[in-house]
Amino acid sequence: MTTLFNDQGHAEKKIKDYLEVLTNTGSLDLKYEILACNGQVQPNTDDSVGERSQRVLSDSPVSATLPRIKVDLSGPDTALLLARNGELLHSIEHVAAKILRLEPEDHDQISFDAENFKANRDRELQERAEAAVQLVRTTARPYSFPPMTSRERRMLHLALAKSGLPTASSGEVPRRFVVLYPEGLQPAQPTQAATEDRTRAIRNSFRRR
After folding, report:
1. What is the pTM of this model?
2. What is the average pLDDT score of the chain?
3. CA distance 10 to 30
4. What's residue 47's pLDDT?
5. Confidence of residue 207 (pLDDT cuts 50, 70, 90)
6. What is the phi/psi pair of residue 124, to 5°?
7. 42-62 b/e with 16+ CB inside 10 Å = b?
8. In the chain, which ranges are continuous DSSP H helix?
């Protein structure tokens, strides 16, 4: 599937156009900065939202990949973005991924954040991972994390990988979660046919929406 990331400049323009719709047509009182992988920041210049100092966002301590485009949102309506555990923030990011025609597994190529919500969440995931590893080694029982987004699950798998303990994702979206297993206890693996059917269904659903 062709993505708009084949032309980085075009991808950034599509994101900027999308943000203009949110802030102007959508009447969200937000400011934004677009940070490309080359470190160039492109802040919006609408006088109605004022000036904003340019800054480079710090990388997540457990980030698997560096997004090709980062968007930092701020302003009076930031509270709306972060309500209900960042529900609107994640939704805006999800729509942006669709605009860029990203496959679900490539969603990490773009990242939206506000008031370091994701950075703080990343640190929380790291702390949870360390605590879970200690608990599983002490009790020799599997530990199930709460349901998370696909991005958070990938980050959690990476954070847990350092322990050498096996992990697996379980459940159906949006209630899918990560399970950490004690040493020597391997999670049941789905059959290849079932995995392929599920992957095909997810991709088809992503394209239809």
Report:
1. 0.66
2. 79
3. 23
4. 38
5. low
6. -65, -40
7. bbbeeeebeebeeeebeebeb
8. 8-20, 78-99, 117-139, 150-161, 192-208
